[in-house]
Amino acid sequence: MSTGLRARELTASGRGAIRVLEISGEGALQRVQRLANGRPAPVAGEFAFLALRDASGGLLDEAIVLVQSPTCVELHLHGAPALVTRVLLELQVAPDPSEPRTLEQLADDRLASAASEAAARLLLDQAQGALRADLEALLRREGADFSAAAGELARRGRRARWLLSPPRVVLAGPVNAGKSTLFNLLVGRERVVVDPSPGTTRDVVQERVRFGAHVVDLFDSAGERSLAAVAESELERAGQNLAAELRRTADLVLWLVPPGHEPPRETCARTRLIGSCADRERGGDSRPWPSLSARFAPARAQATVEELVLSALELPADPWTPGQGVPFEWRWVELLEREEPPRTRRAVQEWLAAGREPD
Predict the structure, then answer these.
(1) How many domains does the chain have?
(2) 234: domain range?
(3) What average pLDDT does the segment 159-178 reach?
(4) What's the pTM?
(5) Which conformational region is residue 305 in: left (phi greater than 0), alpha (psi within -120 to 50 degrees), or beta?
(6) Hey, CA dihedral for 62, 64, 69, 72, is it positive or negative?
(7) Residues 247 and 229 in one domain
(8) Which residues pair with 74 in a beta bridge?
(9) Secondary-structure breakdown of the chain: helix, strand, coil percentages, each rounded to the nearest 5
(10) Measured between alpha carbons, how far is 255 from 325 in angstroms, rounded to an integer?
(11) 261 plus 138 within the same structural domain
């Protein structure tokens, strides 16, 4: 087993049918390519489908792969625990053999990848002992006071969740809904080609965008339309399939509804509707959702999307309180908010001793 690679789960435990793993370390991309039978690596910053196979050629999973760099690759796998275990075994990702790390060291490790200034400041506080101080104070409490203090720490961690792991926001909708125009506006540059021809966007493109104190990972995806009568549509169909899979793993889907179109019949709780291309709306837009025109009213369009994203994901305007202890690993948050004081107390003692939760 190789000890040069590390695996970190980016999805919260028990969340949906998709597990997102970050494989990092020297040779991460080459190792993933080996499972893909040597297929060319996806373009950095863009998603691709890859069939992952074991050493005998048997299919492990049809996964979405995102290459951040040659030393950092994301795998979006179907969530069966046995499947995830098999993929990690085939990747030869060994458990970290190093000595247990303190809370302060764990926070310091994450500082280098902080997505925003607020995230860096929050992690710096933890690296300087803020979380340790609050956990030690928690252990001095008993009964209802203990439960209330544990719940408060969990609330802080839940509040900081998207600050520490930027949410994934996908622009979706029919072809010619203005997704790429809006994407370019939010990114602040001409990141993707905009053309009136249907089906121009076929891949998924990602950029990190700032909304207030927060950042989100924003994705532009292929537009929806029937391809039954479209010649040479296989590439576009692959783009649509990729977009559909990405929507399943997104934290928020912004579905653009241009004039003359209806919203999809089925949406999930993570979907918000936006009336796009409002400049083409005759007689005013009376639809019961926000509307915008990225081309003719860009400032208003940007403000509309920012307000919608912050509201839908419940992102606080001021997400960081100086000197406050915050549990920065999601599994810690989940355990702290359970009403199981004996187990929580044992876990906190483990965290203070080694920076890790017990088995």
Answers:
(1) 3
(2) 168-312
(3) 92
(4) 0.72
(5) alpha
(6) negative
(7) yes
(8) 22, 66
(9) 35, 20, 45
(10) 37
(11) no
